[in-house]
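Priority: medium. Attachment 1 of 2:
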């Protein structure tokens, strides 16, 4: 459910980007529109990484649920932790890239 909700939020930010002027020449936009394009792109990028991470985690949760007991289950938990850490780091780095 989180992946679906964040995907809808990502779609909404794309609509905001189009309304702000993404796709038009930068020379034709005034400074207010350029500022808005940058803000919405920043928000969209963070939501994108958040969405991708939760899609990956939901697939891994399915594999974990279907996994038999043993080494495979342990490996899935390790991969789950690595994907979660990678997703958190991507969101943080994308947040810091616009400072």
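Attachment 2 of 2:
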């Amino acid at each position: 459910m989180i992946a679906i909700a964040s995907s809808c939020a990502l779609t909404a930010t794309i609509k905001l980007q189009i309304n702000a002027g993404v796709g038009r020449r930068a020379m034709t936009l005034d400074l207010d529109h350029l500022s808005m394009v940058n803000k919405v792109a920043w928000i969209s990028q963070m939501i994108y990484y958040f969405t991708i991470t939760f899609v990956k985690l939901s697939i891994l949760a399915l594999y974990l649920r279907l996994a038999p007991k043993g080494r495979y289950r342990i490996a899935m938990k390790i991969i789950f932790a690595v994907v979660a850490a990678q997703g958190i780091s991507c969101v943080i780095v994308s947040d810091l890239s616009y400072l």
